[in-house]
Amino acid sequence: MTGRQSGTGPAGGPGEGAAALSLGFATVDLDRARRQGLPEVIYAPGKQPGEIAAIAAALLARTSGPVLVTRLEPGAAAGVAAELTAAGTQPGDYDPAARVLSWRPAPPAGCRVAVVTAGTADGPVADEAAAVARATGLEVTGFRDVGVAGLHRLLAVAGEIAAADVVIVIAGMEGALASAVAGLVGVPVVAVPTSTGYGAALDGITALLAMMSSCAAGVCVVNIDSGFGAAMAAHRLAFSLRRQPPAPPGRGGREG
Amino acid sequence: MTGRQSGTGPAGGPGEGAAALSLGFATVDLDRARRQGLPEVIYAPGKQPGEIAAIAAALLARTSGPVLVTRLEPGAAAGVAAELTAAGTQPGDYDPAARVLSWRPAPPAGCRVAVVTAGTADGPVADEAAAVARATGLEVTGFRDVGVAGLHRLLAVAGEIAAADVVIVIAGMEGALASAVAGLVGVPVVAVPTSTGYGAALDGITALLAMMSSCAAGVCVVNIDSGFGAAMAAHRLAFSLRRQPPAPPGRGGREG
Amino acid sequence: MTGRQSGTGPAGGPGEGAAALSLGFATVDLDRARRQGLPEVIYAPGKQPGEIAAIAAALLARTSGPVLVTRLEPGAAAGVAAELTAAGTQPGDYDPAARVLSWRPAPPAGCRVAVVTAGTADGPVADEAAAVARATGLEVTGFRDVGVAGLHRLLAVAGEIAAADVVIVIAGMEGALASAVAGLVGVPVVAVPTSTGYGAALDGITALLAMMSSCAAGVCVVNIDSGFGAAMAAHRLAFSLRRQPPAPPGRGGREG
Amino acid sequence: MTGRQSGTGPAGGPGEGAAALSLGFATVDLDRARRQGLPEVIYAPGKQPGEIAAIAAALLARTSGPVLVTRLEPGAAAGVAAELTAAGTQPGDYDPAARVLSWRPAPPAGCRVAVVTAGTADGPVADEAAAVARATGLEVTGFRDVGVAGLHRLLAVAGEIAAADVVIVIAGMEGALASAVAGLVGVPVVAVPTSTGYGAALDGITALLAMMSSCAAGVCVVNIDSGFGAAMAAHRLAFSLRRQPPAPPGRGGREG
Amino acid sequence: MTGRQSGTGPAGGPGEGAAALSLGFATVDLDRARRQGLPEVIYAPGKQPGEIAAIAAALLARTSGPVLVTRLEPGAAAGVAAELTAAGTQPGDYDPAARVLSWRPAPPAGCRVAVVTAGTADGPVADEAAAVARATGLEVTGFRDVGVAGLHRLLAVAGEIAAADVVIVIAGMEGALASAVAGLVGVPVVAVPTSTGYGAALDGITALLAMMSSCAAGVCVVNIDSGFGAAMAAHRLAFSLRRQPPAPPGRGGREG
Amino acid sequence: MTGRQSGTGPAGGPGEGAAALSLGFATVDLDRARRQGLPEVIYAPGKQPGEIAAIAAALLARTSGPVLVTRLEPGAAAGVAAELTAAGTQPGDYDPAARVLSWRPAPPAGCRVAVVTAGTADGPVADEAAAVARATGLEVTGFRDVGVAGLHRLLAVAGEIAAADVVIVIAGMEGALASAVAGLVGVPVVAVPTSTGYGAALDGITALLAMMSSCAAGVCVVNIDSGFGAAMAAHRLAFSLRRQPPAPPGRGGREG
Amino acid sequence: MTGRQSGTGPAGGPGEGAAALSLGFATVDLDRARRQGLPEVIYAPGKQPGEIAAIAAALLARTSGPVLVTRLEPGAAAGVAAELTAAGTQPGDYDPAARVLSWRPAPPAGCRVAVVTAGTADGPVADEAAAVARATGLEVTGFRDVGVAGLHRLLAVAGEIAAADVVIVIAGMEGALASAVAGLVGVPVVAVPTSTGYGAALDGITALLAMMSSCAAGVCVVNIDSGFGAAMAAHRLAFSLRRQPPAPPGRGGREG
Amino acid sequence: MTGRQSGTGPAGGPGEGAAALSLGFATVDLDRARRQGLPEVIYAPGKQPGEIAAIAAALLARTSGPVLVTRLEPGAAAGVAAELTAAGTQPGDYDPAARVLSWRPAPPAGCRVAVVTAGTADGPVADEAAAVARATGLEVTGFRDVGVAGLHRLLAVAGEIAAADVVIVIAGMEGALASAVAGLVGVPVVAVPTSTGYGAALDGITALLAMMSSCAAGVCVVNIDSGFGAAMAAHRLAFSLRRQPPAPPGRGGREG
Question: Which residues of chain C have pLDDT under 50?
């Protein structure tokens, strides 16, 4: 296609020149950090290494703060690193378990996130959530493989989980862990259904519907296997917490 | 329609004359008690009171042991009672909460069933399960409203539940209680998804799929809202237990 | 059923006597306020007015803080009021638009919630969310009928929405408003799909799936039409905010 | 199979000899250009290069105007080119990004199409739409990566989009862009859901249902990933526009 | 709820005061006529007669051109009429078969719409499509009950259908008529699946999916039973046609 | 709508004047008896008694052979009878169990149909199948309530079923009877899933899918609860049988 | 597993010794030819070449008449041939397009089958149907690529199709061809949905549901892509036709 | 992630030190044998050979009784064996057909399990069920390929099946065998739907729903292809049987 998308200049008019940058194949949102405290995150699937490198370079040059690429397979990560190095850009830090590439991690923001998984197969999703959360300034503690088939494992760490500012619960199969955790803590619970399981687990749809239907009030759900989405939900919470004034006298401080 | 189904004689040949009885609109299986220790159970929806009464009368006349009608609404129950009384047949015992009409309850068979529900809305399904189980000779203990949103409620009664010979777990919404209970007990767990909940609960489909995908091994599932089905699964267990020889020395006795 | 559930005493052993109360048909969780800052909320569908009144009376007698009944239709509300009045209990405040009955509203907790709807048909869900949020101490501001088919309506109020601590976005049909709002604000976004729409809207399933798949990062989703669930998610956020220590020097205060 | 389909003569009787041509494995519709202003388009998947070449050669020999093959992978394109060259037929123009092979592009027909995408992953579908539209005489302008998570990107180009005669909106995930665009323009909007996204995006089904349920009136939807279908819908519009008489006095001319 | 939505003034700032009007329960988009050549249409379900009357009165007072209410049942129509009459507003024209209430029909716009149905049960959807189309200035011709089970019925009128500027095809069950019509005409085809049929017809979902998957190229689909949506899609086409300059010499005029 | 569909003359041109008749709201196919040996059948839902009477009168006046109305509830049947009687037309024979109204039953065509049901709740569907089959000249024998939960009931009548020319198997729930019967007979088996059952039976979708997936080869399936569809499939078989020449010597005659 | 299935003797008691043969991994039904005029057919997927060869050898040794293997890929076919040749068994005739291996084709049975496809991509399913039908003694005529997007192609051959004894209609995408054909012929129509198409075609589910919901009466449907199932349904019809006595005087003979 | 999950000590406090063991990537439940008579079973998919070996070694060292790994492909099995051998641990017994690796099989527990399959393609699921059941002390007898398409195969072995203490029925496609078996026996029936079949079989979902909807009372269902789940359900039954006291006089002994 020719026309608008083949240029490489600002996408908007004079007054909003800095807000978006057209790379032809992409229109990069440069205003997101102002609106949301975080620039655009690059989702790798479907993009060529060269495209990823170009967007990352543009974000690194025109914004400050963290830059992230998610779902980046090792082979593609090597390609991106080669492109960036050739262009004289620092190639960033790649976490292969989380499949996350990142630059300029944010300083700690004073928001503690508990990442809890039901089984060992939920590990990669937890790795993504933790890597994204840490890169954006959150403090992460992990609690792995504490699913409801052996409740004593969960109960043994329930107090520690409750002390976090937000809990990310990651579970596949029937996703029951989200309800159990949400019944034990008062803080926000972000549930991540995973595609773990087979047959009736329907690649995570069952856990998604189950978490949506939780008997524990106030559970929020993000997309299947989306450790990234859960981390961003936690980041939104940190964004609110950071804006919060000191607690008025008589309402008490942090108990955790 | 005319023809085969308009007759009212035995459906089979001489050798199997007692096995089935054609009432025109129904072919009653008279052999089930021999095969399964329980005669046919009459499912009321879609049948006229006169038809229900006719089938019940046939079963009462030609079999011994319990006779049951399920999902019988109070209005229809009155109609059935009137028909039977007019025909000189004893009208049976009607349990309006369970919507079960029964005759000739079986003597206690030495099989203890725990009926556990997640929430108060699951009550009618538990009532049906308990009524059918009792009518067929099982001993029932109920544990209501002990869902996972408040785990201490379940843990407080876990020991009692584990002492039963079979546990029926009844839960709607996300159905997580089945996994939690199955992780706590070693005996058979029959899970009944209920249509409790709304939206993503999909009228019980979500709980059904979730129970199927349970992370706790060996959970069995019956149809949505089927207290009857769960009771019959328990009855099958009692059928096996009753045939069981004395435990050999060294394998220990009942610990419950 | 006889047995455990027919008693009316504490469900646990001595050490946890106050934690749960068995009413026979219900096991009331009395410990929730301690764990979560809010007692159990009574979901009305499937319960008799007498049952609702009994649970409410128990909670009012044994806990402090707000008590709530949701999805209570006007007719049932009158029945509950009559039962409570007869028993000498204060009948509470009933909001017919929200179908919420409440007692002892919490004092303002310093958490501001924006409730945003896409269309007029989403009004009842917004009413429920607002009523529950207010009863539990949150400050609510509403923005109605600002769906994406006329983006200027949303843009005109975007600044006000962004100033809240948490945003509840309520939309049926294709649910696109959640993505648009989440792209404009940095704070937590709780999306509520509604059953508004027909045909391909699938009674809210389409909006649910769409919100789950949002291109805006960090959107959290609760069950269809669950204004209550969204309010509780906001309450969890307030629970975290309240525990938060003063912001360290140099990280700035509330900008909103 | 033997019989009818093994011949290679006209499929109809004398009077309609030119309307359809049987190649044994295919019955080529030669009358489509007369009915619809465009001959049959060859959908490549499931066909051998030799079959594609044979159908293309038949169309090139017996019709005038554009001939198109869609969803033709590069390897198969090379095979088709070899077959055609060997047979002395011109091998056409192959666009690998669009996976479209075409001959005899139509002259410009005076119909302007805006092709708008939500994200970079929607690019290949936009490429197909643009290639097919151009080959059939439409004028295409592209607007890429302007999804609703950064509304300013869309608003910056809204005026240009509104000036087109028809807008093709291509979006995966929740597909919200279709509603936003349709609220901004008065011309026909053809929405193409894409299989971009994961989990709850259901391979494009979610976007399809969401676009169907759009709160913006008059959005039309074609099949998932069907850039071809959208281009053909635009071609139908051009077919109508071309037949249109001059606007009567007093109704004004083109405002765009 | 209090706050923003309880006011009744313009929703935007000074510069856009005319663009949206807040009625508290609704934010009326007053700018739509400028953008799309048609003001907002009021969808009746879920709105009280008083609310419908208030929105209609606001639109009648602040815009020119047609005003429409759709899916308005006869009882509610009487209520709306009473409210408007009491307020001194002209009550409009109500078409009970189409369930459409309208004011100030647009003058004919020179766009001819063929409305084609597969069976008699699709009649009410066709009535809605025709009423909305006529109220907005389109010329409608109807072709009823010409489904593919008797193809000669369709073939007998195919020439007349092909002469229209746009064809709306309305069909339930398997929805095959859309493919058959789209194969016969070159103009835009807007397919409306209907909820006609039972069992596997899935309340219109089957027809929706089938029309989406049509083997005839360029079929566009709107929501189930949405005669309104189809009429609005036709109106968008008329909006484009009206802007069109005279056809250049040599490209021919209207052939229909 | 005005225009084509408001006339009441032949829908086609001179040469095909007798083939279709336009009644405005319907285009009656008068050619079906020639093509298929049976005129159009009137499906009652969604039609007014007056419309049904008008179509029936037109068919009775312009065709010979059977005329049928299906799914006609008793109240509507009375309305149709009144309309016809007032117009001097014979009101036909109404079968309330089958909800079928018919005129001029066909003479026996020498084709024997076995109608087999799994349970008593499948009765109404069997009644419809039998009534339609008989009205069109088929010989029907019924076998009721012989589902696979008591296989001896089926085996007792298997020989009689196998002697029919075609077997219609009607079953809800899991629909297993179709596989069992198809394994016992060599003749065509038309399976009708019914909406009998609850929960996982999904209103007949489960039986439909199960019958489609039958392990017995050559089972054909019609729509849920469509006794009519099964009878018409049987009628098509009779249409073929009737055209059949005498069996050649050496291939034997009817064995049944 | 040990036990019953490891033996290789007759599976039944003395009286039914010939009816089933246990091969350990399979229990071969040797009685099917008597019941249905055709022995068991071997479905290749999931079986090792050695297993296929063993079952085929057993059937060839113990039955007369055709023996068939379906869905046999070329590689596996070579393996089966090698196994059989090594064992001194004739390796049969393999049709790679149909993926069918067969022995001892039945003599022509006087039943004519028309196999009609909508598009070229439906070819392999038609090949399977034709190969199985021919091997079992049916006469097959094919009509390829006559889908409804170009109705004149179908109308040109409609007379020939109507002359068959049974019509198999094979179509993917929206499956509309089944309705069109069934409206043109009076004989049985067996519809085969195919997995042709993408997106909303749902791998054949859409065509399956659409064919089930056909507006043409009496269409029967078999499983997706099951050319085998359709051929077996046709074979059942031939089984009935063959048993048919000479037509009585006055009912006419074959008109075809 | 750092923190809790990186340690390798007991997960609980002093009093429950033996109950769970944290390996960092897994929290091994060491208490399960006490609660359920069987230690945790290792599900191989998604785990590295080293992880499997580490968990197995931990269980072998800290528990007595059987240890099992399921769904272990041959390649991974070799890797596990190498890891264990290198670490001086006995590598266990690997059954490649069942894909099960096991150590320390339990002594026979006096519970007889019948494993019944519908077709040869269900074999691998039966192999898994049998291997797990045997390793945990159950006595297994197999009955293969006795599906309902040839009922005499099932009837020939019905008596033997009925003598078991529990029956596992494994079937794909329509899953009808579960209903047929459950109608013939009185003991518990655990149904396993398999992913055998194509098209409408929906990878086992159809069989799952069908078994759930069985017309035979008391059928229990486990997840698709879960031979393991069925074996564990049987093990739970054995757990109950083992605890059973001697039958009281007059209730009879084992009849089997």
Answer: 1-18, 246-256
